Amino acid sequence: MKLLMLLLFTMVGCSKQMAGSPEPDPVDRPKDAKHDGYSAGQDGPTTPSSVSRVSVQRHPRMVTPSVVTVEQAFTVFVGLAANPGAASTETEVLEGASAESGTIILDLPELPSDQKAWSIDVILSSVDVTVVGDDLQTIKLPREGSSTMARFQAMLPEKPENGRATLEAWLFHDGAFMGRIGRTVTVGGLVEQEDTVVEQTTSGTAQLRDNDKHEIHLIALDDERALVILSEPGKLIAHSVVDFDRQALSAFLAPKWGAIRSRGLDVEPGDQDPVGMNMVRGLGSQLWELVPAPVRPFLLRLHLDESVDSLRLYSNVPGLPWELVRPVDVEGNKLEPLGTRFRIGRWHLRSDMMALALPPERLRYDELVAMVPTYEGAEALPALQRELGALRGVSGFRQVDGRSDALADVVQNPPNGVLHFAGHGSTKSTGATTSYALRLEDGAFDSMAFQGLDNNFRSRETLVFFNACELGKADQSDVGIIEGWAPAMIDAGASGYLGALWPVGDDEAAGFAEAFYAEVERSISVTGQARVTEVVRCLRRRGADRQDPTWQAYVFYGDPDTALVRGDVEVADGAVYTCSEG
């Protein structure tokens, strides 16, 4: 499989490492795979899989010369070992669940009795190193014992400044992300290349996490490139390295958010704003041209397939507004934005996370804890009282003070349910650093300060809803408030996050919150649960019908099937929630 090197913004030429290479088909060869209960191309069940699972621990192994030379090919073996060894001690778990022993923990579905091993797809990727030939191999992981070893050829095109090169391997099962392992090697003089003796597999068995969603992974490898991985139920269908300039993306979006916000300030609350709505649609059309080339045919195929209803997005680039993207078909027709076509669940990835808890599909909805600061004078938000009134009508409502000590208390004892903030939010840029803050009654409280708090999110099931409004007509435009708070909350262990991509007016924000909780209650009354993505898509569609661009700003971090459930309400089998007209 050839490594694709496609441009994101300039759309011309190839990257430094693959200059002059012919452009392959944007979707690499599909891999035949089976999936329990449904076929590839279907969206899968909306309830948790009945297939039992088991946690399987193995020592990650990347066997390669410890010293490599510029422009000299070397061999890299990747596998999962039953016993620790010298190679295992040099290989680290960079992402995914890990144990103190250094093993990676795989959540795998139980193997059928007639199968002896799972198939694990391994993608070798590196900022420093070029993979020569196929960068995807498949290994067999038995129930017991070590896996087979994937064998890659790699070459270092130039010497890194620090004299060290990093190798990373991404692990998938049936298209579902399992984890990432890596190690570093020293760049030195000539090294005699020898095939390393590797441990062979023995008969064995394990278990695996089922993949029942269509997924896009967009992982920025550095400031210039990103890894794109596409999968559908039971299949890892394509992977590519693309040129990706995160700073250029932020520079492109900043004035767009400012223009949309400024337009909103000129419109009276509750009025239709067809011009503002067209600005959002126009941005969606521009974004389609900026979507990495391998992703576009994948998204277009899913968009036209009525059986596909949801989409998972994994990325360490929170500011990319996938929900606004408007695909264009082969005849040039502009289609419905992704955020109104699909139930989209985002999930944040960080390269320095040693363990990444995947979003749950069921959240207890026992409490709604509301923090609604009181503002005076020019900072007063008249619509806050209307929003607070809607929150008080929710079962399990509890209000806390709008001060930093109250915030510290509530994150130490978070609710099983929703933590809702309604008030001012702001951003402040100093050089290359941007801080994202909530305006509390005793001053600004930014996401860095939040990261310094002790919290117990990982012991609870908490959806965080930050409904942060802009700071008033006299202030300069703020942009991208979700970029700071969504990653901070997910990293802290929150089970989900709901917020806006750009600053929104207080009246429109209050209206969204009122409608959100009303639709949640309506869905629970009909079906016994409320899928968050279903409600968000409902409100995005309603906002578009009303010619109000504000409600297009809200995006959700969590699983597409994440549902709020109450212990005293039974889920009604076969009952269907439909979006109300409002």
General description of the model:
The protein is built from eleven helices and 28 strands. It has 582 residues and is of the alpha/beta class. It folds into three domains: 5-44 and 51-242, Sandwich (Immunoglobulin-like), CATH 2.60.40; 244-348, no CATH class; 362-565, 3-Layer(aba) Sandwich (Rossmann fold), CATH 3.40.50. A hairpin with a 2-residue loop joins strand 11 and strand 12 (176-187). Helix 2 (246-265) packs antiparallel against helix 3 (274-290), helix 6 runs parallel beside helix 10 and helix 10 packs across helix 11. The chain is globular and about 65 Å long. The N and C termini lie far apart (50 Å). Mean pLDDT is 80; it is low at 1-49, 190-210 and 470-480.
**Number of beta-strand segments:** 28
Category by helix and strand content: alpha/beta
Q: Which spans have pLDDT < 50 for at least 5 consecutive residues?
A: 1-49, 190-210, 470-480
What is the CATH architecture descriptor of the largest domain?
Answer: Sandwich
CATH class of the largest domain: Mainly Beta
> Count of DSSP helices?
11
Secondary structure: helix percent: 10-25%
Cα-atom Rg, whole angstroms?
Answer: 24 Å
Alpha-carbon distance between the termini?
50 Å
Q: Strand-residue fraction?
A: 25-35%
Shape: globular
Tell me the major beta sheet. 8 strands, mixed
Instruction: State the fourth-level CATH superfamily of the largest domain.
Output: Immunoglobulins
The structural domain count equals: 3
Mean pLDDT: 80
CATH topology of the largest domain: Immunoglobulin-like
